[in-house]
Amino acid sequence: MKFSWKNLLLWSLPLIVISFFIWQGLFAPITNDNNNIANSRMTYGRFLEYIDMGWVKKVDLYENGHTAIIEAVGPELGNRIQKIRVELPITAPELITKIKNQGIDLDAHPIKNNTAIWNLIGNLFFPLLLITSLILLFRRSNNSTGGPGQAMSFGKSKALFQIEAKTGVIFDDVAGIDEAKEEFEEIVTFLKKPEYFTAVGARIPKGVLLIGPPGTGKTLLAKAIAGEANVPFFSISGSEFVEMFVGVGASRVRDLFKKAKENAPCIIFIDEIDAVGRQRGTGIGGGNDEREQTLNQLLTEMDGFEGNTGIIVIAATNRADILDSALLRPGRFDRQVNVDIPDFKGRLEILNVHARNKKIDPKVSLSIIARRTPGFSGADLANLLNEAAILTAKARKNQMTLQEIDKAIDRIIAGMEGTALVDSKSKRLIAYHEVGHAIIGTLLEDHENVQKVTLIPRGQARGLTWFTPSEDQSLISRSQIKARIMGALGGRVAEEIVFGESEITTGASNDLQQVTSMARQMVTRFGMSQIGPLSLENEGSNPFLGRGMGNSNEYSDEIAVKIDQQVKYIVEECYNKTIEMIKNNRIIIDKLVDILIEKETIEGEEFRRIIEQYTEIPTKA
């Protein structure tokens, strides 16, 4: 913090005040330092005895005769003159007479009036010091808010303003989202060379909305724009507009756009705009008045009466479904850019970017990692390489190998590795359960390939079977869904066939939840049942109601009964087929279980080679 006398005064004021009162309490009552010269004390009665015995040579009276410092000499005192303090009673008329009769030297010392100075300091100096400090405080508040009478900066925008934003990120550092990057490269070109576009009548877009799941690189794109464009850059979060005081958010919006107009052309980046841009008048009990006023002001500033020429508003959100429709229309956000989960090519590019500062074994192929991580976002891939680097450092290795990367993938997906099982009965039961999943997935043509089967616990799972998901998950056929249902039922069926119905465990509870969910979606959403091609349930509930409160049935009780019947029919059909497959391949299952118990982990290629020794594996699509 920069040094200034004002800051020094403001910080030292409390210490000065506290020190003053401590001084007053501890030292002001002491009116004469001579009281402290006596090293010992004596009672009043003993003092009178000393006078009678003629041992007292001198008496000095202090504090209006309430305290005496005597000089005495006698055998008890080692025949040396000593000074002794005596507390005298309020009324002692015989004392003075006794002292005079003995011819003792008597002297009285008046009280020194030091309190007048302290009273002056306390009544004049400190109030003046407080008033001066308050004046400085108010002046600093007024200077920070830009107007008189504003002691607090509630209405001031908290946007981070940079003339040349040096974020350390440029477009070359953004990978895996080429379509979104092209959109923003065009905007940067517009800002740098607007004459190319205005010559044909094009106008600069007013707003661009980035939509996508968390971790896909929306904020990274904004940093790249700030690094590429040589224009002022304002960065703020949507939550910073909302305060407990009504009107503060709208005031901050006005202040932000006022600064932006003064520095146009410029870019305003609003991260997590859903914090302030939610639909108005929604929710139980009505809307939020403060947030709605803030949104109204934002709508007015983006495309109001005055307009904002040269200001580009870039916003990011992963909740586009809850944004107000007035905010999404052209003229406010002219473009909506989807930043999706990267495909194989995108993941490979992202891994190349994040591998620049990592020491990776040359034998490791990033394309293999990219193929093993479908569904990973850019943030997931960055975290993957970081976790692998941590594991490499723990192992005291100089370079990252595929072993550390595989462990990092398993840790991110399933959690930390647990202690290996030692109970032979539990271990064999879990082995049959996992092999049941894996063999059904391998022998079904429409199921994904097995990647790994392991008995090493991770997270809450006592064992795991990994499947390599297909690259395209947007379109799934009826046969693929049924294959997934059968694969999920494989573990439960293997337990039943091998150990009997009485030994079925709770290990398949999560599998059964997935099975029921897939079967119900086939009936109610995808039209894959005898009820017909009807969509009976929405994909998601109302985001402004509590969980389950917006899921009201839009069908009759008769249809509800048919839905339950069809769900049960689909699950039973898949269950019976799974039982048949497990029984027909019991010899292979027993062999695989023995190998799995011995090795604890079987990779997908080895798993398929063992099965091929006994039966034919269908070719996957």
From TrEMBL:
The cofactor note reads:
Binds 1 zinc ion per subunit.
- Protein known as: ATP-dependent zinc metalloprotease FtsH
Residues of the AAA+ ATPase domain: 204-343
Please state the Enzyme Commission number of this protein: 3.4.24.-
**Is Nucleotide-binding set as a keyword in this record?**
yes
Provide the cofactor list for this protein: Zn(2+)
UniProt-listed PROSITE patterns: AAA
> Residues in the active site?
434
Q: Which gene encodes it?
A: ftsH
The UniProt family comment states: In the central section; belongs to the AAA ATPase family.
